[in-house]
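Support request, please re-run this one:
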Amino acid sequence: MKTNIVEISPKQLASGQAEEQLQLVADYLCSGQIVAFPTETVYGLGANALDEQAVQGIFAAKGRPSDNPLIVHISDVKDIDKVADLSKFTPIISKRLQLLADKFWPGPLTCIIPASKQLAENVTAGLDTVGVRIPDHPVALAILQTVNLPVAAPSANTSGKPSPTSAEHVYHDLNGRIPLIVDGGETGLGVESTVIDLTSMIPTVLRPGGISIEQLNDVLGQVIIDPAIAYASIGQLQPKSPGMKYTHYAPEGELLVFFRDSIHRVLETINDLPLDKRLGLICSNDSYHIFFEQANIEWSYLQLHQARAEEIARQLYKWLREVDKLGIELIFIEAIAADGVGYAVMNRMIKAAGGKVI
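Re-run finished. Output below.
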């Protein structure tokens, strides 16, 4: 299969010069084909959410387990009836959804609600609920408005690998597996949407992401975090959301998460390694100074940052892809404060490391 690339930039949209490209994308989706496109979080791999065969193409292209449900994207909250079973909405579900939609849509928030029977069964992995969101990206919204269909779209990467934040990342993973990539430039947020289950007694966060727990608490009064977010629960529960069951975001080399007060243990680990081991370090400037003072280590990959969660969220998957390009065998990445977006960043780091924390 040949993978074509079409460019649609926000600038082209603003000047009305992307109609032909948008129609091309819509034609692909309406004919049951899959298309990668940018959102404000990461690139998504989209298919008509009402077409079971089209959706199956997503699983085949990604190598994604079929029991992992997909998020459905719409362009306007009034389209919710295309994906949700409104007859199963209780007054409290309706109120929660309205509050969150008013505050966070379009945006990086996915709401779990009762699913419409119109949806392809493989979108929901047989569950009676579905995750829905409105992306906050002009290209994604323009595609959704043009195609006028709900679009199921997980991240546009090989399953388990770092999510793509550029069209180049998508091409690297899926060249020859999908027919079309929409290049809309690099994404802004860099981590996936927050997923919250509105059908539970207390609204429950199933995946941390671009909207923080604190922000959700401010709007809903109380939310809880699903225990399946903890690494020890992976594989033990039926997933209601992408990212709950399987290891994700992992580079080819071994990844270890460390805290600053454990740098001495990192050094002990390195001292026991063969001298020719290709090592990578992703940490704050302050921590690097400690490494520099205590040991003369030749890092094959070194990435310093200011320990700001928003910056790390934007760059994390890019860094994990860079270490793969360089063939780094062992990567140490510094933990950050798990508040705000930092909670989502730490969730991705620990999953990418397979739960290995120093």
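The radius of gyration is 21 Å. The CA atoms of residues 12 and 18 lie 6 Å apart.
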